[in-house]
Amino acid sequence: MRKNVAILINPGDNVIDIACGTGAQVFKFAKITKEVVGIDLSESMIKTAINRKNKEQIKYIEFIVADASKLSQFTDKQFDVATMSLALHQFDPNIYPEILKEIKRISNKIIFTDYSVPLSAGIKKTAVQTIEFLAGKEHNKNFRNYYKKGGLLPILKAQNLKVIKERKIISGIFNMVVCSSS
Q1: Which among 12, 77, 161, 176 counts the fewest CB atoms within 10 Å?
Q2: Per-residue model confidence (pLDDT) at position 109
Q3: Low-confidence residues of the chain, pLDDT below 50?
Q4: pTM of the predicted model, to two decimals?
Q5: H, E, C per residue of the chain
Q6: Per-domain residue ranges for the chain?
Q7: Residue 117's closest CA among 174, 177, 176?
């Protein structure tokens, strides 16, 4: 999945990865461009990412503990590209508007990757539902709400994001959507 997102990044792009976790996608971007920021609300995940950054001695990556719905430390259109992978489904749907408003404000192009809706019946759907159930009660509740809302496309369109490209990846389990913030 990370490779599918990374190929949409151009050399020289200034990129932010929102809800970056331990930074796996950020490190993939670092091979392409020289300015990458990863943010996550989890201090422990950011600490893990910073430890890897220091171990690999990469100077042009920055990791910040930050709330995706409150990105006031970044200026309007500061980034060429913002990415969010496998994260929107874990948020309370009541904060989708704030998160998406902030992402639109700080970036020109946005790449979202998350679960496809609907998932085809069978082992894939069962596996996804099991993973989300095991992630905890609140996480699973948010996933179910994401699913009820129809997944990425309806959520993004409700916030007036202009869809440029949509593609199912990894056997249709995930949906990758490229949007313009204008």
Answers
A1: 12
A2: 94
A3: none
A4: 0.89
A5: CHHHHHCCCCCCCEEEEECCCCCHHHHHHHCCCCEEEEEECCHHHHHHHHHHHHHHCCCCEEEEECCCCCCCCCCCCCEEEEEEECCHHHCCHHHHHHHHHHHHHHEEEEEEEEECCCCCCCHHHHHHHHHHHHCCHHHHHHHHHHHHCCCHHHHHHHCCCEEEEEEEECCCCEEEEEEECC
A6: 2-180
A7: 174
| Beta-carbon contacts of residue 44 (< 8 Å; ≥ 6 apart) | none
Tokens of residue 134, six digits: 């095991």
Q: CA 149, CA 64: separation in Å to the nearest integer?
A: 30
The pLDDT assigned to 139 comes to 77
Whose tokens are 């609300």? That residue is 41
Instruction: Look at the block and give the residue holding tokens 């990469």.
Output: 58
Q: According to CATH, what is the number of the domain 2-180?
A: 3.40.50.150
